[in-house]
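User: Predict the structure for this protein chain, please.
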Amino acid sequence: MNRYLTMLLLGTLFVTGCVVYNVQADLPDAKTWRVAGVTAIDVRVDNGAITVRASADTVVTATVTKSCKGTSHADAEAHLADITTGDSISGTTLYLWGKVPTPNTRSYNTEYAIAAPAATLLRVETANGAVNLDSMAGAAVVVAANGAVSTVAHSGSISIEAANGAIDCDMVALDTAEAAALHSSNGRVTIYLPVDASFAFDITTSNGNANVTGFAGVNYSTNEAKHKIGTIGTGVAVVTLRSENGNVNIQAK
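Assistant: Here is the predicted structure, written as structure tokens:
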């Protein structure tokens, strides 16, 4: 009998001590800076998606949405203050950051939506969250520890490191002396380039296939299932794709 009473007591303590956070609260906040004062943006967040899109506006706009969960909406709202966000300008570089508590028991999140001139230089880092660049034209560096990375109508050199997530990079152009270096440890890597693009390439995967599709006049120096090196056209730009687990693809559009 004592055994059953002990088990009942432990079970009761477990249930009463288990707090469920299932109600979310959100708090968006927008800030602007004069375009003339910003030529580069550096944004780094612990947990949250980051989107940067090209804008012809006279200001750079960053909207950060804090969110977290609680036992009620009031409880969740009360803990939004646990999240730290900030910004500063050094020279012509705008720095943005978001930090969340650890352990992240309340699903703390900081989602950034940024609008800036297309030619803005970018460095974007997130520990957990997707990254999307839309119609940007400046050199960009993206680091995503856990999350997919995508670009739409990008031009200019780009470097992407995705530890766990696919990379889909749609390019409008890759001009002379520009480069695209894309690497995912776990996920496919695909770059879409104009059918008349001219570039040298080196693409490889440990587990998957290496594919070059849709281009005329491909010249290979290495043409293996998992590794391809070669040139298309005069090879004035450089494309390097790597994946430890996933296909690597250069696709004409």
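The chain has two domains: 19-115, 148-253.
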